[in-house]
């Protein structure tokens, strides 16, 4: 498949779908999504489409607390740096397999920021236990 730029919601959907296909079967983080969080993919994926569309294409579709679900998961299984490292690795790999250009670079940059913020917050919580 030839790489293209991220320009539409359909591109966001492709990115998110491919990324979560990897996540679901991943040896490091798959169980967190499948067994711990027990993600309902039919509900979760459209939320992620909205989230990434807002970040990359400036829509106003996403209006949720991003951190709350992650805090809930962290109470069940403390999220560790290895989990966040794997998440970003899978995300960057997926972006780079499918897309190029400014929005692809922005997706990776935003994902790295998200990873850093979430990892910091989870470490703070886990250290205070």
Automatic annotation (TrEMBL):
Positions annotated to bind heme: 70
Gene3D superfamilies, alphabetized: Globins (1.10.490.10)
SUPFAM superfamilies linked to this entry: Globin-like
Keywords: Heme, Iron, Metal-binding, Transport
Domain of life: Bacteria
Alphabetical list of Pfam families matching this protein: Bac_globin
MF term (GO), any: oxygen binding
CDD domains in the cross-refs: TrHb3_P
Protein name in UniProt: Group III truncated hemoglobin
